[in-house]
Amino acid sequence: MKAASSLLFLFLCFSYVFAFIPPRNLLLSNLSQGKFLTNQEFWFNQTLDHFSPYDHREFRQRYYEFLDYFRIPNGPIFLVIGGEGPCNGIVNDYIAVLAKKFGAAVVSLEHRYYGLSTPFDSLATENLKYLSSKQALFDLAAFRQYYQDSLNAKLNRTEVENPWFFFGGSYAGALSAWFRLKFPHLTCGSLASSAVVLAVQDFTEFDQQIGESAGAECKAALQETTQIIETKLATDGKALRAFFNADDLEIDGDFLYFLADAAVIAFQYGNPDKLCKPLVEAKKAGDDLVDAYAKYVKQYYVESFGVNVQTYDQKYLKKTAINEDSSSRLWWFQVCTEVAYFQVAPSNDSIRSSKVDTKYHLDLCENVFGDGVFPDVDATNLYYGGTKIAGSKIIFSNGSQDPWRHASKQSPSPDRTHQH
Ligand SMILES: *[C@@H]1O[C@H](CO)[C@@H](O)[C@H](O)[C@H]1NC(C)=O
Ligand SMILES: *[C@@H]1O[C@H](CO)[C@@H](O)[C@H](O)[C@H]1NC(C)=O
Ligand SMILES: *[C@@H]1O[C@H](CO)[C@@H](O)[C@H](O)[C@H]1NC(C)=O
Ligand SMILES: *[C@@H]1O[C@H](CO)[C@@H](O)[C@H](O)[C@H]1NC(C)=O
Ligand SMILES: CC(=O)N[C@H]1CO[C@H](CO)[C@@H](O)[C@@H]1O
């Protein structure tokens, strides 16, 4: 998801979710540099709690609009959904091509709590209780109405509805599908790219897909590397962590999760050779596999990709001050309360360490957010339908090498068009 395999779609406001790969990273910002259709900000007064009849607090939510291609007055409006990261503008990508072709206006709404759309000045757990996909969908609905009304006012008309179409990838892809499900009267259809619509507690398929994508030789080298690392961690953990410039990751699970994610990123973003080539070569030459892996992690994942090692540190995730890496805490909160997608090691043949298990994730949720915080994935799937989502006019696209596709909808539903 997140864009995975061969960089399917890089919408910037989002979605490069998670392995947990912290959203702000150089790869994506490099790709988008100077490539915005617009980054001029607008603000909208959004309701904080859409589900309370007596709480009328509001917060400022950021959005963007691009009207150069708009066929006034009746062209379509494309809404690009912001996901689990700051939204710094409307990226000039394939959506721009479609907008030009269809004479569409393009608007994009930043997801609540991320970037500058923060309702509170502290991210204490108590303040996060309005951070959920359900509130986010309602934000989109309220914004859509506000924008349509403003447009009508500008054009001296009332009661007119332009055709709206929603776009999103990864987590925002799930929002795109769920929006069409919950608010079918507000959009003609949705593109749900690599959309993680299925909440999964023990997401073992994730690691299995990495094994498949790696191929036998690279997979074996990765597994051997994990084994050596586990042994070294038990005997001289301090030196091993220092070797990876990850001294702060004192909890073994944090460290092992960081190392697992580092491998994932090569496959998820379509660069398997960056990892597999040096590792397989080291193995053939009888060189130290941990050396080769550490070099990849430091040079590729940390330096080029721009990951902040601290974002794997639970001590850091507990910090409630808002900073440029707040997305990590915010996304973990969503994971820990709604959707899980815990990327645990499968019981057999796994690549990541078996210490990255369900207990590790549940402990993290409680340690970072407080006692009793855990995701009720059954409730989430009951609410949205999981892969049995009963919406219409939703286009699901997915990438064959994308480990996230196993939380997405990979086969079409029986034809429902006669019902709508
Ligand atoms: C991103 O840009 C920086 C600075 O120009 C460069 O050092 C880095 O290698 C780039 N990263 C990628 C993944 O291209
Ligand atoms: C949003 O709320 C603020 C503070 O209540 C108010 O000053 C401002 O005019 C509102 N903006 C809009 C567009 O309604
Ligand atoms: C809208 O109506 C007002 C008042 O009738 C008029 O002054 C204005 O020019 C109109 N604007 C447009 C865009 O037609
Ligand atoms: C474990 O994985 C190996 C390799 O994929 C496979 O051959 C074997 O059948 C699996 N064993 C079990 C118990 O699933
Ligand atoms: C690789 C993969 O999973 N492809 C699937 C993506 O989704 C379409 C439509 O649902 C399927 O037909 C593909 O097989």
TrEMBL record:
Gene Ontology cellular component annotations, sorted alphabetically: vacuole
Signal peptide (UniProt feature, chain positions): 1-19
One Pfam family this sequence matches: Peptidase_S28
Annotated region (Disordered), positions in chain: 400-420
Keywords of the record: Glycoprotein, Hydrolase, Protease, Signal
GO BP: proteolysis
GO-annotated molecular function: dipeptidyl-peptidase activity; serine-type exopeptidase activity
Cross-referenced PANTHER family: PROTEASE S28 PRO-X CARBOXYPEPTIDASE-RELATED (PTHR11010), SERINE CARBOXYPEPTIDASE S28 FAMILY PROTEIN (PTHR11010:SF115)
Family membership noted in the UniProt record: Belongs to the peptidase S28 family.
Name of this protein: Probable serine protease EDA2 isoform X2
